[in-house]
Amino acid sequence: MNTRIVLASMLGAATLSAHAADFGPLSLTGFAKDEVGVANNVGSVANNTSAPPVCYGDSREVLPSSAKCFPTSLGTVTTPTPMYQLTGDLKHEFDNGLRVDAVLTKRLRNGSNDIVGQNWFEKYVGLSYPSVGSLKVGTQLARAWSRQDGFSYPIGLSTAWSETGAGFGLFPQAVRLTSRTLNYSFGKLTLEATYATNNKYDQYTGPQGPDQASTPQMLELFAQFSNHNNLIEFTFETSHGAGQSSWGKAPFVGASNLPVLGPGGAGGSATNIYSELPRQSVAILEGDHWFTPQWMLTWGLRHSYWSGSAITCGFTSNVGNGQSGCLYPSQGFNYANGMYSGVSYQPGYSASTNDFLLGLSHYRGLWTYTAGMVYLGRARTSNPTEWGQSNWAVITNLGAYRKLPEVYRNLSVYGGFGYVRFGRLGPAPLSMPSNTQFSGINSWVSRSGETFTLGALVTF
């Protein structure tokens, strides 16, 4: 898609009457943006006309017994990404200050739900009282993702920071308690706790089906401190029974591989090897520091932990020739080849990582200039298979952002140059959800690549 066409469409949208709308107790807010990304050293096949094949059940291509689905060539790929979000807030405030809200948020990326399988970004009802705080019940964004995104998006590193690590992005079923703002002489403090759960995984194909799956449960603690020069936030999540990944935007859904099952005999019945719940946690400390009104430092520290998760072998009697066979409803996490009673299976191994964010922003009139980097570190694990624990990645970005009030008051355009560097060829670092997280640059076939981004944004 031609870059001029994409940006022209956004500029055209800005000429419309796009602004927040209030209809009595109902308010509508949101944004529309279009972004074009260009990346080199992107792996593909057939002279860059199609995507690489997918190794089902082994997305990192680490099992010695699996065929490696590597790209056959490297090239430059252009990717347009239109995104739209609309939030409706139906609210009423009583004379005593008690406020009731019902909120719905829909976000679309490339014409589909931004998070696959999740129809709503937010869908909750809330109560708030100034001297007490607030209570919200329903579908809500996790602080782990939304606040990491809040710090990293302005410096062009949202994908590298908020969409990596052991956090979750969205809680389909959650209860959140937020304190009132606590005022001190040295600053303001807000405290929060969220309990999240979801349905059991219900699509398992084996003889020990959904009744063997666990109900996922999550506790997220959040604290925000601010004063004249600083915004500092701490987020801690701990969960069990959820599908494991290192995609920090992942929805909180039930794991499909409980209990962990090993291969069965010739008849195809699964063997229960052990049934330990997969556990996952993340601790994030991040913030902004204003040296002056024109200069701001952004920083972040993150520790991730995964208990590891085996590939689950689900058996069915309807595999091609009518013979019993093995399907893989779960890709597992940080697994390796193992043996049980003389038959191979893939157990999971625990792992932890430390990652860092650093950025600098300079404000000058209508312009903002940014520079930033994310470091995804090596992992600590006893996994005998190289699953990415020996790899690391550095992602950098230089960006510029400009408001365009001469065209429309809520229109802005932005651009950035990025660079991705891996420590070695092979599986991507554990904090990355796939080998091709960053614009398609594949750590199996290229240690580095450059990116260019150009976009336009309208808020209302």
How is the topology of this model organized?
Elements: H1 3-14, E1 21-23, E2 26-44, E3 73-93, E4 99-109, E5 112-113, E6 122-129, E7 133-141, H2 143-152, H3 158-162, E8 170-179, E9 182-184, E10 187-197, E11 217-226, E12 230-240, E13 260-262, E14 271-274, E15 279-292, E16 295-306, E17 312-319, E18 323-330, E19 338-340, E20 343-345, E21 351-364, E22 367-381, E23 393-403, E24 411-422, E25 448-459
Antiparallel strand pairs: 1-2, 2-3, 2-25, 3-4, 4-5, 4-6, 6-7, 7-8, 8-10, 9-10, 10-11, 11-12, 12-15, 13-14, 15-16, 16-21, 17-18, 19-20, 21-22, 22-23, 23-24, 24-25
What would your notes on this structure say?
This protein is mostly beta strands and 460 residues long. It has a single domain (3-459), classed as Porin (Beta Barrel), CATH 2.40.160.10. Helix content is 6%, strand content 52%. The protein has 3 helices and 25 strands. The strands form 4 sheets. It has a 16-stranded antiparallel barrel. A two-stranded antiparallel sheet has the order 13-14. It has a two-stranded antiparallel ribbon with strand order 17-18. It is globular and about 70 Å long. The two termini are 26 Å apart. Residues 3-17, 46-52, 259-270 and 315-325 have low confidence and may be disordered.
Give a quick summary of the entry:
The chain has 460 residues and is mainly beta. The protein has three helices and 25 strands.
Strand content: over 45%
Helix content: under 10%
Q: What order do the helices and strands follow?
A: HEEEEEEEHHEEEEEEEEEEEEEEEEEE
Write down the Rg: 23 Å
Span of the ends, CA to CA: 26 Å
**Major sheet strand order:** 2-3-4-6-7-8-10-11-12-15-16-21-22-23-24-25
Strand segment tally: 25
CATH class annotation: Mainly Beta
